[in-house]
Amino acid sequence: GEYIFLSRLYHPLFGFLSGWVSFIVGFSAPIAASALGFSEYLARAFPQIQLFGGPDLSKKLVAMAVILLFTVIHLRGIDFGAKIQNYLTVLKVLLIAALISLGFAFGKGDMGHFDSQPFQLNYGSWKTLGLSLMWIMFAYSGWNASVYIGSEIKNPAKTLPRSLFLGTGIVIFLYILLNVLYIYAVPAAEMSGVISIGGLAMGKLFNIHMETVFSLLIAFALFSSLSAYIILGPRVYFAMARDGYFFKSIARIHPKFYVPATAILLQGAISIIMVWSGTFDQILTYMGFSLGIFPILTVAGVFIIRRRGSDFKLPGYPVAQIFYIAIGLVILILSFLERPVESSVALLTVAVGVPVFLLFRRTGHDRHLS
User: Fold this and answer.
1) Confidence class for position 366, pLDDT limits 50, 70, 90
2) Under a CB-based contact definition with an 8 Å cutoff, are residues 219 and 41 in contact?
3) Which residues have a Cβ under 8 Å from the Cβ of 19 and sit 6 or more positions away?
4) Which pLDDT tens digit goes with each residue over 89-122?
5) Over 50: is that where the pLDDT of 228 sits?
6) 24-40 confidence digits (pLDDT tens)
7) CA 167/CA 227 separation, integer angstroms
8) Which residues of 171-210 are buried (b: 16+ CB within 10 A; e: fewer)?
9) Do 365 and 244 form a contact (C-beta atoms < 8 A)?
């Protein structure tokens, strides 16, 4: 992924920083967010269920248990984990398709909800728009994920581009329809502060029984995202450790299941820490800002490749790259202005990676990127 691209296009420092942010934020934070989302939907389906200490503590305990469960699943090997992942992904796509079809065909919504809050072009609303777009990017945050397991799939030159285009295209189609359905179902004012919006929408469109059923289904569908991140993240840390830029123990492969077991366990531990350290929207903001930096650098690397004389055909060049870079920078700037604390913590996370890189470079050695 970006770790290899940035290391070879710019400098190993940039590759390390992308891997460092992936380690701290890029995969652990989405795992935490998905687990918290699961607990929110489960609580909407069964509001009477509480473990102890109140609803907030119960949700965090449930989220922690889910992370532990899927960490154990993916310790058993890529074949077993991939089968689970494929089943979960099919379940999620079918669920979303059913929700959209039933909602528009039989639900009692109102397209007038689109007119409830007109957008005002002022400084405050532009900042809110930037932050909202950064949160929205979370839905697309796996668009480049296939690249992370490129060394473990067959015929990557053909399979990777196909998976990137097909996967992102399906997500765009489903995501837009799903959000149109949400607005059709729920007035904008009633969405404020609601994480389990899918369950609320089905309750508005139909009844409390449908809200319970779909909240439960969506809760389990969130396993797909959580599971995917647990599969992908450790492969980045493994590559860093293999190159001498991370703890050697992270590069150890389980003798029976042939997975980077230490990396998987460490990622699970960080994800659990994040569950207990922030709210859902704080985690999304911190994660979104951190992850918004390195894809911009990666896309900009296309110009370096061209300058080096590559004749690789790239449809849309250079307009698509310039558009992506410009929009990405605008989103980061507006998000920083709207949420300076979380954004500053994200920048600090990147900055801390510089001395860590120098430490590993002094004690390790670069075997693959020099």
Assistant:
1) very low
2) yes
3) 2, 3, 236, 237, 239, 240, 245, 246
4) 888 888 888 889 999 999 888 888 888 666 677 8
5) yes
6) 787 888 888 888 888 88
7) 16
8) beebeebbebbbbbbbeeeeeeeebbbbbbbbbbbbeeeb
9) yes
- The pLDDT score that the predictor gives to residue 239 is 77
The set of long-range contacts for 364-370, using a CB threshold of 8 Å and a minimum separation of 24, is 364/243, 364/244, 364/245, 364/248, 365/244, 366/12, 366/243, 366/244, 366/245, 367/242, 367/243, 367/244, 368/242, 368/243, 369/4, 369/7, 369/8, 369/12, 369/15, 369/243, 370/12
pTM, to two decimals: 0.75
Nearest to 131 by CA among 341, 271, 300, 272: 341
Arithmetic mean of pLDDT, 289-300? 89
Return the CA Rg of the chain. Answer: 21
CA angle 319, 325, 327 (to 5 degrees): 100
Rounded CA-CA distance 241/11 in Å is 17
Helices 223-242, 12-21: axis angle to 10 degrees equals 150
Written as six digits, the tokens of 72 are 């154990």
Tokens 């992102």 — which residue?
A: 168
